[in-house]
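Continuing the batch. This is chain 6 of the set; chains 1 through 5 are on the previous pages. Same settings as before, nothing changed between runs. Recording input and output for traceability.
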Amino acid sequence: MPEVLTLDPASAAYPDLDPDMLREVPDGVNVHRTGAWDPYRIYAGFTNKSKADAVSVGFLSDKPISYRERIARWVRANVFIPDARVGWYFYALKKARTLVASGEIDAIFTTGPPHSTHLIGRSLKRRYNVPWIADFRDPWVDIDFLEELPMTGFARRKNARLEKSVLDESDAVLTVSPVIERQFVKKTNTPCVTIYNGFDRDDFSSDASLDPDTFYISHVGNMNAARNPVALWQALAQVKEQVPKLKIRLVGNVDGAVMQALEAAGLLDLVERIAYCPHGEAVRYMKQSAALLLPINRVFSAKGIVTGKLFEYLATGNPVLGIGPPDGDAAAILQDTGAGKMIDFDNGDAMLAYVRSLYTQWDAGKQHPHGDTSAIARYSRSGLTGQLAAMLDDIVGEKRT
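Output for chain 6:
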């Protein structure tokens, strides 16, 4: 049975907490929580923000960046390396050492971001030589938002050295997309493997179903400025009067730039905004939607972005409208499953054509589950977890041998 080490949410600032996810922790799993030193608390006081709002440090905001936020970004970029969660390191390491020293730990698994968690795994590996997997849900030095941070050359070099040491000293590197895997393969000789995020079948067993009265195009999750599908808004503006049952549903936090683009396109009257909600409620909104919007961040690393949201979209059986690189990893999954289309960022004509076809099917009551069910089933977490278990068996077996 795994031993889970995390922090007490009361000791750190988070923009959103989901009690639904906590209830999914199986009985019998020991969850160890520690305190943490949280710089976001200082930033909140410095900028007169709430702790939750402080976490964004200007990345998801309706307002222009203030001079205080610019200072906070500089401090974040050059003092807290690799990230502002590094204040958990000593708290976590103290508890982790007691767990590993007990002799009951066969392997260590660290996951990031925040990538500072990997530094805990590195310290434990150095001291106890326990097999260690470093799991990357996003790139480290190649993650897109670092381009927004005013990092000095010294900070960038230090960040790169930390990444290199984690890659080289871990026994295996796990990623969530082939593009990220290939990035790491170029940097280390440590074996690198991709296992996708996947979906939990049980999460989609509710009786929620497609809304017969409203053609919802829904985005579920945070939509920052880099995900703003301006070409789609402009395309929908052309047919606004022709699809009277159309609604744009945005579930979660939405950047001010998105709302400004919707206003410029004359679509605000079609927008239904729903604040961040528990996971079960979010799934219900997905299942009610005639089209699920999957905008990929328009950044240099877009081809390797495969969000966990994609797999939950697949599980609904509703069509996915992807906006991003047609030759990226997310596009390959949509093509493999037949669950939707990935359309290039600026191809408004193709977006409009796809929306029209979906609307015609829906309006005629002929929308059926999209995608190859056997292909989609490959992304179920039960099977993917089996792959992870095999990885752990391999590295533990090699160590014992």
